[in-house]
Amino acid sequence: MYFSRSAPLCLLSFTLLLHIVVGLHPLFHICSSLAGNYTADDTFDMNLNKSMGSLFYKTPPTGFGISYVGKDPDRVYGVAICRGDVSSADCKTCVVEASSEIRKRCTNNEGAIIWYDNCLLKYSNEEFFGKIDNRNKVYLYNINNVSDSTSFNAKVKELISGLSNEAYLSQLMFATGELELEKSKKLYGLTQCTRDLSSIDCKKCLDGAISELPSCCDGKQGGRVVGGSCNIRYELYAFVNA
To answer: Where are the alpha helices (DSSP H) in 176-235?
Structure first.
């Protein structure tokens, strides 16, 4: 069983998530409390439709896409990113689902974000490209604890820190890896940034997420810090595609 909670910068909301997610169930979503509202069929709504259509087209080939449609004050900025190990077909499926679901969950809201296992999609009436998003963040963690939290936490930090150093230097800003534990067990990890960030800001975002692990996931068998610009994850089982 997994537990999720929003980070301190977000409105508090609690929900239980099954570890095995059936279909394309979202991990979490946030409707911006700072953005304005639009009405059906107005200029912003039409620009949002075009932005979502652009992301359908741009994202699957490389796993990342951005869009900006229209003129202020109705301009729409959008971004979508798929997990680095996801196929183009699965990426497209996730982005299509995300663009539909985010509009259902954040009806008439001019800013929103939604996360899935395979992708993230975000749009806003304010430009956010190249900026670290510290506002939208959620913690997910396994409710089960390890027996030796001190040793385990050190192993988690060692693995995720190493993957952070790999990710910010890679073209895809994505890295996965594993670390041997005692009794033939392994710890698996993932780090990823949205590719609108610079390498320096990617590292800064990932380091910030790593610093939150003690308060988020202390001694938990699995955990994630999932943000609008980067995310980190660790588990005691392999969770990425080979």
So the answer is: 199-211, 213-217
